[in-house]
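Severity: low
Component: inverse-folding endpoint
Summary: output formatting inconsistent between runs
Steps to reproduce: submit the following structure tokens with default settings.
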């Protein structure tokens, strides 16, 4: 399954959920419409998001639906982290090692 070789290359966004929405954090994969999950912490959202991503890709394969390859990430000009076109990286997202 070649799509799983690239699973960690799919860019995602994480944002806090409001109390009204149940709290925690939402993870979304902008390359794959409707592929999202959540968790109580950003780390848990990432773990749950990977499960959602695997399920999404398996469903596409099973039903013969097309899906996008991972978008290329780029270094943000303001040094706030990495992102992909039209996706915002939150200020609290960890910076790469060695970068201030």
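Observed output (run 2 of 3):
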């Amino acid at each position: 399954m070649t799509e799983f070789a690239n699973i960690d290359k799919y860019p995602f966004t994480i944002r806090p959920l409001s109390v009204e929405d149940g709290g925690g954090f939402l993870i979304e994969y902008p390359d794959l419409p409707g592929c999202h999950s959540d968790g109580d912490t950003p780390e848990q959202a990432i773990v749950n998001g990977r499960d959602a991503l695997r399920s999404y890709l398996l469903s596409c394969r099973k039903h013969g639906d097309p899906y996008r390859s991972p978008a290329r990430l780029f270094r943000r000009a303001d040094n706030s982290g990495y992102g992909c076109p039209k996706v915002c990286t939150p200020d609290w997202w960890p910076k790469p090692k060695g970068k201030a």
